[in-house]
Write a structure and sequence with these properties.
Layout (H helix, E strand, L loop, with lengths): L19 H11 L5 H21 L4 E2 L11 H4 L3 E7 L14 E10 L5 H11 L3 E2 L1 E4 L1 H7 L2 H7 L3 H21 L4 E6 L1 H4 L3 H9 L7 H13 L7 E6 L18 H7 L4 E5 L20 E7 L9 H11 L8 E5 L14 H19 L1
Parallel strand pairs: 1-4, 5-6, 6-7, 7-8, 8-9, 9-10
Antiparallel strand pairs: 2-3
Helix pairs in contact: 1-2, 7-10
Length: 366
């Protein structure tokens, strides 16, 4: 049966290809040709249109496409008190391509007094005819993306750091709720990196102690979620990297599945399953029976080629061998533009994929 609360049978991760008007305006603002007020005017106009289109294709939730952001994570993290986005020596390395060179720095105590993205959500809510959905990076992303010596300068005690991040997130979550948010998604690359020996080795080279890290992350995330109201749905999207249609990590969910699916106080999970990089569906056996949902990311956002509906249905049936099909939904494996550069496909192909998800979900769940 179809669902009337999130996550929905046909859902999406959040980011959408930036319109040409957005790209031009951001470039002009960076060059000093237009001011911040003019940029916001263009963003407002383009976001209102992108919200309308999501409802048009049949989706029951809408985001702002992350049109006001450059990054899926740094923009939010840089909006926390005590965290700054800084220029770096090198970018984040994907398969054959590297992002622009920026990183994070802690300047003082981490907090969330008045996060600017709460205003972004208010605009979304005021214009959405369907349920407005907010997407933010997971708390664990801040730790994993920091150089360990930078963290130690501000927080020599790792437990104090985790507590500070969790408490800042708890305030931000409450801020979004007070602004009317009832559907929040935490985007998290770290749980996928914990499934990759290659990425774990890189983390150790940066000074991170990786043994037991998934347990520490679970405790931090649960602390951040502890005070959330009962009528607020919070999900997590686990990502293997998504930049210009490339990726970072490979490896199935088995190493973290029991903690991820059974140990986090979340309502659902968006899991990437568009390629064999994600492994098989066997880890889904750890999803507790009941109200928790898993959104199967079987439609790739990295290519414009439209999936065969019958093939997708067969994949859903394969997953149902390990998890109740009534606890399943369908989505793209990731957003279409985790950074402002976007993936390598057209806007028309993007909308065709989202419309296809709606159609398949209706055929599978009624």
């Amino acid at each position: 049966m179809m669902r009337t609360k999130p996550p929905f049978r046909a859902d999406h991760v959040g980011s959408l290809l930036r319109s040409s008007a957005i790209k031009e305006a951001r470039a002009e603002h960076l060059a000093g040709e237009i001011d911040g007020e003019r940029l916001r005017e263009i963003e407002d106009r383009e976001i209102a249109e992108i919200i309308r289109k999501q409802g048009e294709v049949g989706l029951l939730s809408a985001t702002d496409g992350e049109f006001r952001r450059s990054w899926w994570h740094f923009d939010f993290l840089g909006g926390l008190d005590g965290v700054e986005v800084i220029e770096s020596d090198q970018g984040i390395q994907f398969q054959g391509v590297q992002t622009k060179a920026q990183s994070l720095e802690i300047t003082n105590g981490i907090d969330s007094s008045d996060h600017p993205m709460i205003a972004h959500f208010r605009f979304l809510k005021d214009h959405a005819q369907v349920l407005p959905k907010m997407t933010i990076p997971s708390p664990s992303v801040l730790h994993f993306r920091l150089e360990d010596d930078i963290r130690r300068k501000a927080y020599p005690d790792i437990d104090e750091f985790f507590d500070a991040v969790a408490d800042a997130y708890a305030k931000a979550i409450r801020g979004f709720y007070d602004a009317g948010c009832r559907y929040l998604q935490l985007d998290d690359t770290v749980w996928a990196y914990l499934c990759s020996e290659v990425e774990l080795a890189k983390a150790r080279e940066r000074g991170l102690e990786t043994d037991g890290l998934h347990g520490q992350y679970a405790a931090m995330i649960n602390r951040a979620l502890a005070g959330r109201p009962d009528d607020m749905t919070i999900t997590m999207h686990v990502c293997r990297g998504n930049f210009r249609s490339t990726w970072i990590s490979e490896g199935g969910y088995e190493p973290v599945a029991e903690t991820l699916l059974g140990g986090l106080d979340l309502d659902g999970y968006f899991l990437e399953y568009d390629t064999d990089r994600a492994g098989g569906f066997e880890p889904l056996r750890f999803l507790p029976k009941g109200d928790k949902m898993v959104v199967l990311g079987l439609i790739t956002s990295k290519s414009g080629v439209l999936e065969n509906a019958d093939d997708v249905k067969r994949r859903i049936e394969e997953a149902a061998a390990y998890v109740d099909i009534d606890q399943c939904c369908l989505s793209p494996q990731c957003g279409f533009a985790s950074t402002e550069e976007g993936n390598v496909l057209t806007e028309q192909e993007q909308w065709a994929k989202l419309a296809g998800i709606v159609e398949i979900a209706e055929n599978v769940w009624g």
